[in-house]
Amino acid sequence: MFRPKTPTTKSGAALEILGVTFHAAVRRIRKSHRNAAYGLVMNILQSVIFVMVFYWTFELLGLRGTAVRGDFLLYIMTGVFMFMTHTKTLGAVSGAENSTSPMMKHAPMNTLVSIGAASLATLYIQFLSAAAILFFYHVAFTPITIERPVPVLGMFLLAWGTGIGIGMIFMAARPWAPDAFGLAATIYSRANLIFSGKMFLANTLPGYLLVMFLWNPLFHIIDQTRGFVFLNYTPRYTSVSYPIKVMIGCFMVGLIAEFYTRKHASASWSAGR
Questions:
Q1: Cβ-count burial of 264 within 10 angstroms (0-12 exposed, 13-18 middle, 19+ buried)?
Q2: Residue 26: is it exposed, middle or buried by C-beta count within 10 angstroms (0-12/13-18/19+)?
Q3: Which helix (H) or strand (E) holds 58?
């Protein structure tokens, strides 16, 4: 009489998982701010502050000549939006509930739902923030033109996807050494302030500097995004295929590592934390 209702078909089970993921994503969005609109406004303000800091940095250092021909603020925003989407997704996924979390004791909650909720919540906030800022800039200041909007949206999703993949690796490794891998995730995020290429174009870098950035999938994503946004820029040293390969590889490694951790994890690991 009091047995929980379980789906009898694969489609029913899939719908149940999607429903749980949706509610978990809503919970995560409201966890930081009870008012979802307030949380969105705060994220927009953070993005605007990033844009203005980089704008005045370019002005003070006299680096505007290194930017692509076109709208200078749009040039900065392409880098900031991709950087924030990638970094915030990585932070949300790496900090999501893992196999040792008390939340996993409540069926049908599992790590797949946790990852999906964290990533979807971040995508929702970042997409709305970017759309709101671009709309306000287009209406209030100057009309903007994006040459190839569909590939730009694809790059946005790729920045999100690579953030999920790398975040999954940190999430799976965190139960083994929480402080060490938490610090490693922070170092990676801070390193991306420089190595993501927000402030310059790959085509303008000399060869000895270019090799220091080509390892980073976000560097490729930002450079390719600017090629799709601006008519006067064609990326020569970056590609779309590299971040896709990195994303798939990180997904596979993250899933294997999470499966291994779930099989060997003990609830007593988190008792002392």
A1: exposed
A2: middle
A3: helix 36-61
pTM (predicted TM-score): 0.85
Count of all residues that appear for the chain in the document: 273
CB proximity list for 86: less than 8 A, separation 6 or greater: 159, 160, 162, 163, 192, 196, 218, 221
Structural element, H or E, at residue 150:
helix 149-173
Give CA–CA dist 265/260, Å, rounded. 8
pLDDT per position as a tens digit, 178-208: 888 888 888 998 888 888 887 788 888 888 8
- Measure the N-to-C terminal CA separation of the chain; round to a whole number of Å: 39
What is the b/e burial string over 230-243, where b = at least 16 CB atoms within 10 angstroms of the residue's CB? beebebebbebebb
